[in-house]
Specification:
This protein is mainly α and 191 residues long. The chain contains twelve helices and no strands. It is elongated and about 60 Å long.
Length: 191
C-alpha cells in the first residue's frame, strides 16, 4: 500500500509525502529491496545522490541480484566520474542477468569514459551480436573506434547507425566529427 502511495505521490510531484510513504513501506518490510530502491530513486530524482547510493546499496545488501538497484547505482557512479565503480557495478549486474543488452551498453559507456576503448568495443559488440539492428551499439562502436584513432572504422559504424535511424542527430554529429578528423571537411558538411 505505502509503495503504491509513494509512487503516486512522486508522480504528482509531492516528494515529501512520497518519501514518507516509502519510509513507511521500508518499516513494514525492511527485508524487501523494492522499498529501498524506490527511496533511492526518489533521492536520485531530487539530487541527493549520496542518499540514493545508500538506499540502492541497502537494497543490494538484501538482494544482491536486484538489478534495478545495480543499474541505477552504476549510472550514478558514471555520472559522478567514478568509472571504476560504475564498471564493477555493471559487471555485477551482468553476472545476474547476462542477456540484458542495456547493461552491456552501460558497461560500454563506462569503459569509454574510462578510456578503456577495447573493453568498450567488446561490450558494444555483444549488444550488436544480440541485436544486429542496434543503433546504440553502432554509435558505441563508432565512438570506441574514433577514440582509438581508427576514423575509417568509426565512419563505417556511424554510417550504419544513420541507416538504422536517420532521425538521430548524434550519429550525424559523430560522423561529421570523424570526417573532420580525417580532413575531409566537404564530407563533414554534406553528411
Amino acid at each position: 500500500v505505502y509503495k503504491r502511495q509513494g509512487t503516486v505521490y512522486a508522480k504528482l510531484g509531492n516528494l515529501k509525502k512520497a518519501e514518507i510513504s516509502f519510509r513507511k513501506a521500508i518499516k513494514l518490510k525492511p527485508d524487501a529491496p523494492e522499498g529501498h530502491y524506490n527511496l533511492g530513486r526518489l533521492c536520485e530524482e531530487v539530487g541527493l545522490l549520496d542518499d540514493a547510493i545508500a538506499a540502492y546499496q541497502q537494497a543490494l545488501q538484501i538482494d544482491p541480484a536486484f538489478n534495478p538497484a545495480q543499474i541505477n547505482l552504476g549510472a550514478i557512479f558514471l555520472s559522478r566520474g567514478e568509472e571504476n565503480s560504475a564498471v564493477k557495478t555493471f559487471q555485477k549486474a551482468l553476472s545476474h542477468d547476462p542477456e540484458k543488452r542495456a547493461l552491456y551498453l552501460s558497461l560500454g559507456n563506462a569503459y569509454l569514459k574510462k578510456a578503456a576503448f577495447d573493453q568498450a568495443a567488446i561490450a558494444y559488440q555483444i549488444v550488436k551480436d544480440q541485436k544486429p539492428q542496434s543503433q546504440a551499439a553502432e554509435i558505441g562502436l563508432g565512438n570506441a573506434a574514433f577514440e582509438k584513432g581508427d576514423t575509417i572504422r568509426a565512419i563505417s559504424h556511424f554510417k550504419k547507425a544513420i541507416s538504422l535511424n536517420p532521425e538521430n542527430p548524434v550519429s550525424y554529429i559523430n560522423l561529421g566529427t570523424a570526417y573532420a578528423a580525417q580532413g575531409i571537411l566537404e564530407a563533414a558538411i554534406v553528411e
